[in-house]
Design goal:
Number of domains: 1
Radius of gyration: 15 Å
Number of strands: 0
Number of helices: 4
Amino acid sequence: MNIMEKILTPVLSSIALALILSFGSEYFLSIIMYSLPVFLIGGTLFSFAVDNILEMVKLKKRYYNYLISFILYGIGGVIIITIFALFQGSISEVSLTPLLVLGVLPGLIYFHLSLILNTLISKI
């Protein structure tokens, strides 16, 4: 993953998440304001960690690589949103289901946009 992809992925992920979560409401910019720093810091750091893990494992089939990445990014999203909630001091107020949904969804958005950008940038 090159630096251009590492910068574009969190920005586009934040916009995509805002589009999904604010559908039909006026919270689009608020969601971007809150999610962009989380994507930039947490998503980028976690992405580097997943890249290193996958490089150490070196799976032969692309399907297995995709499946492991899918699972890791989903779990990573939950971990990052939990850490963010802990820093906000609101972890006790949040039930498990919204925490899982709001963690897995951004993680998988980040992962799939990363795949798309990787494909597009490699063709340039």
